Amino acid sequence: MANRNSYFFDAIKQFAEETPREIAEETAKVTRGIFNTIVDYSPYLTGRFIANWQIGPTDVNFSTMGTDTWLSKQAEINKTITPDYFLTHSAAYMVNNVDYAHNVEYDGWRVTVAYAPVGKTLGKYSGGV
To answer: Could you tell me which of 79, 83, 81, 39 has the C-alpha nearest to residue 56?
Structure first.
């Protein structure tokens, strides 16, 4: 009888130890997919809009004049949003604070004489992560 109890408690212990990591792995995978898609749909003309996607455990309140490319911003996302990130943080935020971010999202962005469709970036994920 002691062996069955020991096996049962060992199985529960193993489950309790492995589950948080598995949840963190899946959460990181889904979050990276969403954040990378948002960057994919961001305008590319100057790079400033893409450079201003700030990623972190809190809502970020600043704007940067950087010129990150689509590829370097995706590399930053993939490096930052890992299972270990979600073992220490309960949320991931992606914020863009350029002065024209609202116009890009709700009015489209101007490319020569044509406008891009409205809601190309965050509108797809209005519920957040």
So the answer is: 81
Q: What distance in Å separates the CA atoms of residue 47 and residue 67, rounded to the nearest whole number?
A: 5
Whole-structure pTM value: 0.71
Kindly report the number of other CB atoms within 10 A of residue 52's CB atom: 23
Instruction: Express each pLDDT in 93-104 by its tens digit.
Output: 888 877 777 777
pLDDT in tens, 68-108: 677 888 899 999 999 999 999 988 988 887 777 777 777 76
| DSSP labels, the chain | -HHHHHHHHHHHHHHHHHHHHHHHHHHHHHHHHHHHHHHHTS--SSSHHHHTEEEESS-----------HHHHHHHHHHHSSHHHHHH-S--EEEE--TTHHHHHHH--EETTEEPPTT-SGGGGTT--
